[in-house]
Write a structure and sequence with these properties.
Blueprint lengths: L3 E6 L5 H9 L5 E6 L10 H9 L6 E5 L5 H9 L8 E5 L3
Parallel strand pairs: 1-2, 1-4, 2-3
Amino acid sequence: MSRRILISLVSQQTIPNILFIKENPIQDQYYFITTEKMESDFHRKTKTIVGTVGLPDTLWKAVPVIEDDFGGIVSVLQKLDLRKEDEILVNITG
């Protein structure tokens, strides 16, 4: 059974992520690729995004990566629960 999955890059600007989710509201899972800086006590970008659009905690996951570590990012992405039959939307507007 295919699932609709949205993968979104978290950046300093949250509006592009919020708008993309509102334009594509029916997803089975949301992955937010983020960094330690974006999730610090000061920023909390993923929480801001999911709170604004009202995503239930069971539908989303913050996926921390180390910025500029291409190999590490690829490794983290390969560990996500993605299947060939899934329909995957990737938001890189951030």
